[in-house]
Amino acid sequence: MKRNPAVGRGLVVALLALVVGACAHLTQPAEPLAAGSVLEALKFDPELEQRVLALDPEHISDAEVRGTLAKVPAPYLVLLHGGIYPVYLAMTSFAHFLKGMGYPDRAIRRTDDVHDNVYSYSPYQDSRELAGLIAWHYEREGVRPMMIGHSQGGVQAVKVLYDFAGWHGDLQVWNPVADGFEDRTTIVDPLTGATRPVVGLILPYTSSVAAGGVMLLLPNQWSMMGRLSHIPDTVEDFTGFTVGVDFIALAFPGMRGDYVADGTAKVRNVVLPYWYYHPLVPMTSQLAEMEAMRDWINAYTPGRSDLEETLPPGPVYNALWAADVWYSIKKHWCLEAQRLIRARRAALAKP
User: Fold this and answer.
1) What's the predicted TM-score (pTM) here?
2) Could you read off the pLDDT of 224-274 as tens digits, one per residue?
3) What is the CATH number of the domain that holds 105?
4) Which residues constitute the domain of residue 308?
């Protein structure tokens, strides 16, 4: 067959354009922060510091959320929605629940301007971008982000933990403002001032609800077969939620959840009532609109035997899941703030 030279030249130009475009996407200007700049920028009065340090992370009241924690940096929350349109709206509902409970909007809303008023990330996004995004936020804010995943987003959350464990080798910082990878694989640790790799970053808390089953048959999640239930050491506190009857995640009566720690991670398995509906578990914004329900959720502690019996009257859909996740978010918000304040005090004490 006789080749058309013009077609050949066109293909070469097209390929070069793709290569140049990919390179531009991977080499955004990197501007790591100066060592110590995050701690120096903090302006806490001593009385607020003492109030934060005096908090009991296991029992945070509504007044303590709004009067104390709201005045210190809150960890950025990476909300990961499921993979079927328009299930992202369920995670948007959860974002509004969090705001109604006192969590700051700036720590939930996506950082990129392109997705203004969008709160969650897609499970089809490259997990390495999410890992790099988390490192970017930690370097600038001094408190480690957390992840909450639903359905296929729950699979994605565990995949990100594997990325931090070095599954794909080095990880680059992802800049959400420039919408691209920065040309570096390290960050300046905001608490120590030391340069450290993105790989190896340990998150304080991650949760996954209604993940697994048929989701692992999707090509983008094949790599998680045999791995999803094994939680690596790149998270301190992991909670895996299973719906009592879930034909999508292939969960059935009698199953107690099967997440296990591969090492040091603290892993809990929680089985939700059978009447929870897989696509709608994060639909929780209505819970924050009722004073009695807010009080019940703020008083919640895991493991109580009378949880369902003490629920207030009115709509209680997904309340157990929302209360458990909110408990862990409050707990680690407190712990991260205390960690930040102690690091600031140690830095100021140096001659």
Assistant:
1) 0.89
2) 999 999 999 999 999 999 999 998 998 887 666 689 999 999 999 999 999
3) 3.40.50.1820
4) 31-346
